[in-house]
Amino acid sequence: MEDSASLPGNALPVVVTTGEPAGIGPELTLMLASRGHLPANSVAIGDPDMLRQRAAALGLNVTVVECSTGECPRGGNVLPVWPVTLTEPATPGVLNPGNADYVLSTLALAVDACQRGHAAAMVTAPLHKGVIIEGGHPGFTGHTEWLRDACGVDDVVMMLATDAALHAASPSWQGGSDLRVALVTTHLPLRNVADAITFDRVTRISRLLTADLQRQFGIAKPRIAVCGLNPHAGEDGHLGREELDIIIPALDALRAEGMDILGPLPADTLFTPRHLAGVDAVLAMYHDQGLAVLKYAGFGQAANITLGLPLVRTSVDHGTALDLAGKGLADPGSLKVAIALARRLAAQRLSVSE
After folding, report:
1. Fewer CB atoms inside 10 A, N or C side of the chain?
2. Burial class, 88, CB count within 10 angstroms (exposed 0-12 / middle 13-18 / buried 19+)
């Protein structure tokens, strides 16, 4: 992937929220800075004192410097930070719902910076949904949906991509790690998924996926392979009628619009080289249907991208890992991929708009 310093729009920073303070997010950012792997012109958002304490506890050689827009230092083992103060003290591995508003405040600052033109893109470290809910936000379902509402858009698409897939316009999967997977539904209980699969939703999500593969990945005419919902893609209605009644008519309508759509295909055979050859992305019907395969292929070296937003947002491919927090054992690989990808996507958006 290109060095961020060589890309257009490099004057604006990529902002990185440090996520749940009891999780591994803070130390992942510190690890990248301590190893000199934090891409140029990256700025963390979080509590500076907490970051200093975490760095000292882990023995990391990092200088945490508070700064504001346009005034942040670069280079060396410096971690520039736009400060947000913790609501309550944070202990690694110990969740505290009292810090729910702190976590959401870091997100709000990142969104505001992107919308005001103070940041090129935002990257999010993992948060803990339970903490946010218990901290007074019962409707919270995740980053993706929160960002949809914060940006005032009707729909967004969650897509994860492995590092290898980020280098090529069209992945050529051969049992390796080059894969992009988007989702029709995101954080829903499994019993609610079938009711959420509608003609309107399948067509809207497919159009958003196609548009952002063109706008953010530079793919002129994306080819998308679509999973069926049921085993064997319904087997002609004998294992469920969602394919016959909803998914096939939706895909036929999209093909009539000129989109290059394959499927619906049985999910248990779609993720094989024969079906994925020349495919730019897979559209899965629900969370674990697609992401289990992607994380098997490239866990720790993949990034989450929210498509359909008026800004660039990427994230890591993992959770808060409370069992690893504060131990210095977490792998910052996914965060490194997410930051580099955010810079690349911001540059691609800039080139399209010029």
Report:
1. C
2. exposed
- Residue 282 burial (CB count, 10 A): 29
Compute the distance between CA of residue 186 and CA of residue 51 in angstroms, rounded to an integer: 31
Q: Which CATH class is domain 155-300?
A: alpha beta
Annotate 203-263 with DSSP letters as a single string. Answer: HHHHHHHHHHHHHHH--SS-EEEEE-SSGGGGTTTTT-SHIIIIIHHHHHHHHHTT-EEEE
Cα R_g (the chain), whole angstroms: 20
pLDDT of 233 over the 70 cut: yes
> What residues have CB less than 8 Å from 245, skipping those under 6 apart?
none
Q: Which residue has the tokens 């947000």?
A: 84
1-153+309-354 adopts what CATH topology?
Isopropylmalate Dehydrogenase (3.40.718)
For residues 58 and 300, the model is more confident at 58
d(CA 142, CA 157): 13
Share of the chain above pLDDT 90, in %: 73
* Residue positions forming the annotated binding site for substrate: 143-144, 295, 304, 313
From the annotation, which residues make up the binding site for a divalent metal cation? 187, 232, 287
| Numbered ranges of CATH 3.40.718.10 in the chain | 1-153+309-354, 155-300
Q: What are the start-end ranges of the E strands in the chain?
A: 14-17, 42-46, 63-66, 78-83, 121-124, 157-162, 180-183, 223-227, 260-265, 281-284, 302-307, 313-316
The answer to whether the pTM exceeds 0.70 is yes
Asked if 84 and 106 count as a contact pair (C-beta separation under 8 A), the reply is: yes
- The phi, psi pair for 42, rounded to 5°, reads -110, 145
In sequence order, what are the beta bridge partners of 162? 302
- Which residues are annotated binding-site positions? 143-144, 187, 232, 287, 295, 304, 313
